[in-house]
Q: What sequence folds into this?
């Protein structure tokens, strides 16, 4: 106990005294042999990192009440209260356990807003899909080098037809699954880093990726299942207008049903098949927020792309190369933002589906305020 803060994590109680982090009502003793997860990546093993980032409901406060919510600096200044440094190390400290207000529509939009807040405050997350895209290009290139030289063609009544051997088909399937696996790991990396942020920790892409890769067998199995299902749905969609409509409906249903598979694999220690079943269960409970959130992301993305096209056309009328460059750069940026925002929304909705509370044990609006006031902004090259 002290009259002044002695460092990060110290908190002020209603008696006006400062207390060390270990005396906080929500403080938990570290498990034997495990360290603390830090942004530098040193501390507990990656698997334990995932366990510490799993969604948790806010617990009742049994100790001395703390000061006002630290994210609301204006309120703190108006009441003369002090905001202890490092308070984000204890998300939800002293806060009541409450679900976000509003119906499915407003709740879905607020959870989507959390995704865009994460893009703003953790821009380094956008490097994850960039690295994944490069790796996917490498895999596709290696696959092409393995298949193209051995292709054989035979005559057909209506022209040349390419025939693939069983080995070539296996190579193409392997390439497709590996590309899907890279995409899944990138998605899992973003979710892991977002979940860490919901717990008040800011970790690097490398730390989040190492944590996600501890679930490699399950993620690889999911990548294979997802690749097979999407391939079958694509085949259905290629069978005329009716096939296109049926395929689109089935694919939308599959995307909704499998929406929570990756976070379930990361945080519930289930295999790929069991995670699909769990995802369906969660989707039934939160289908409204899921549809609304994904629809909002789609509308925002479409509006951004239309605006990008308009700007690039206007610039291209004056100088064509400039219009093309601006259009391509703008499109790439939009896709990066949407990719990260979608994964962050996935994490936020999963947290809410599991705990029936907003991520980080705050309302989404309060969470955004906390990021603006105390969040550590990262460089776009933080990895």
A:
């Amino acid at each position: 106990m002290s009259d002044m803060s002695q460092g990060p994590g110290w908190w002020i109680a209603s008696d006006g005294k400062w207390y060390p982090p270990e005396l906080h009502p929500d403080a938990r003793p570290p498990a034997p042999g495990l360290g603390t997860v830090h942004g530098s990546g040193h501390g507990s093993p990656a698997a334990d990192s995932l366990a510490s980032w799993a969604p948790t409901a806010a617990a009742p406060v049994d100790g001395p009440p703390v000061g006002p919510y630290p994210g609301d600096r204006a309120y703190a200044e108006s009441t003369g209260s002090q905001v202890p440094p490092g308070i984000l190390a204890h998300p939800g400290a002293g806060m009541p356990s409450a679900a976000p207000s509003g119906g499915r529509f407003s709740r879905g939009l607020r959870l989507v807003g959390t995704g865009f807040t994460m893009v703003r405050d953790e821009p380094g997350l956008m490097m994850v899909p960039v690295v994944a895209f490069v790796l996917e290009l490498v895999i596709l290139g290696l696959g092409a080098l393995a298949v193209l030289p051995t292709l054989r063609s035979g005559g057909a009544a209506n022209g040349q037809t390419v025939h693939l051997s069983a080995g070539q088909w296996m190579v193409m399937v392997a390439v497709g699954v590996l590309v899907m696996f890279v995409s899944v790991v990138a998605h899992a990396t973003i979710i892991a880093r977002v979940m860490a942020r919901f717990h008040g920790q800011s970790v690097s892409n490398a730390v989040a990726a190492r944590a996600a890769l501890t679930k490699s067998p399950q993620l690889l199995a999911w990548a294979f299942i997802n690749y097979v299902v999407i391939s079958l749905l694509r085949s259905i969609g290629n069978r005329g207008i009716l096939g296109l409509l049926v395929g689109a409906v089935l694919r939308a249903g599959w995307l909704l049903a499998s929406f929570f598979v990756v976070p379930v694999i990361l945080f519930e220690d289930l295999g790929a098949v069991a995670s699909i079943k769990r995802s369906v269960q969660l989707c039934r409970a939160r289908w409204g927020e899921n549809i609304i959130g994904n629809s909002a992301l789609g509308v925002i993305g479409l509006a951004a792309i239309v605006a990008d096209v308009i700007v690039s056309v206007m610039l291209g009328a004056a100088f064509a190369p400039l219009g093309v460059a601006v259009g391509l750069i703008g499109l790439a940026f939009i896709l990066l933002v949407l990719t990260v925002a979608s994964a962050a929304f996935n994490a936020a909705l999963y947290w809410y589906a599991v705990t029936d509370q907003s991520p980080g044990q705050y309302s989404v609006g309060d969470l955004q305020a906390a990021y603006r006031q105390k969040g550590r902004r990262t460089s776009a090259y933080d990895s």
Remarks:
- Confidence is low (pLDDT under 50) at residues 29-44, 59-101, 361-383.
